[in-house]
Amino acid sequence: MKRLSGGIDVGSESHHILILDEEDNFLYNQKVAHKLNEFAESIKLFKQIEKQEGGKLSFALEGKNGYSAPLDRILLDKGFTLYNVDNFKLKRFREAFAGEWRDDERDSLMLSKMLKLKEHIDSEREKVFIKIEKPSLVTESLKLLSRHQQTLIDEKVRLVNRLRKKLLEVCPQILELGKVKNKKIIAILAKYPDFSKYRRI
Questions:
Q1: Could you tell me the CATH number of the domain that includes residue 19?
Q2: Strands 129-131 and 81-85, sheet pairing
Q3: Does 116 lie in the same domain as 34?
Q4: What range does the domain containing 177 cover?
Q5: What angle do CA 10, 14, 136 make, to 5 degrees?
Q6: What is the pTM for the complete model shown?
Q7: For residues 16 and 106, which has the higher predicted lDDT (pLDDT)?
Q8: Are 156 and 128 contained in the same domain?
Q9: pLDDT class of 118 with cuts at 50, 70, 90
Q10: 103 vs 99, which has greater pLDDT?
Q11: What strand order describes the sheet that includes 81-85?
């Protein structure tokens, strides 16, 4: 069975995906928008490519991060093999092709070429490719909750900063009681929510 090598340059709004056959012929070279319907269409094409070429398609991603979801999960669900490539290793590989510009298409091409050479690049001492495993439902839930928790923490920090700024404008003395998160200050604010009256204090 032929080995088909795909490279995915991950972006926040779109991902550049490129697929090479064993002779370095381009089988697919497209920018795919970060939309579920576009992912579905692309995966149909990937399955067709596998069938036409009689091959097995694997993908290498540049630095798996939050932006790769849900594309990475969908590809795993559809039976494709995915590898994460360290950004530093990709940079070193890219430098071997000096004189060429850097853009999303070139990065996805470099990832495809690296994947073709996986057996020669990987060693016992230094693993360049980390296989991305399909996470369990518990792991996925924990990741979602963790991201939600961080969002709430960030929102709390923003609100506290805004409240502190407002108190400095209308009644800076109140901050002598302590930080804005201080229970005494919160109790006063809850009892007297009308900031216009604070100027009289």
A1: 3.30.420
A2: antiparallel
A3: yes
A4: 139-200
A5: 55
A6: 0.66
A7: 16
A8: no
A9: confident
A10: 103
A11: 26-33, 14-20, 2-9, 55-62, 81-85, 129-131
Q: Residues 125, 196: one domain? A: no
Q: How confident is the model at residue 7 (pLDDT cuts 50, 70, 90)?
A: very high
Residue 135 CB: number of other CB atoms within 10 A? 15
Distance in angstroms (rounded) separating the CA atoms of residues 32 and 43: 11
Q: What is the pLDDT of residue 87?
A: 76
HEC per residue, the chain:
CEEEEEEEECCCCEEEEEEECCCCCEEEEEEEECCHHHHHHHHHHHHHHHHHHCEEEEEEEECCCHHHCCHHHHHHHCCCEEEEECHHHHHHHHHCCCCCCCCHHHHHHHHHHHHHCHHHHCCCCCCCEEECCCCCHHHHHHHHHHHHHHHHHHHHHHHHHHHHHHHHHHCHHHHHHCCCCCHHHHHHHHHCCCHHHHHHC
Q: What is the structure's pLDDT at 194?
A: 78
Co-location of 15 and 113 in the same domain? yes
What average pLDDT score do residues 140-165 get? 85
Tokens at 174, concatenated: 């109140």
125 and 169 assigned to the same domain? no
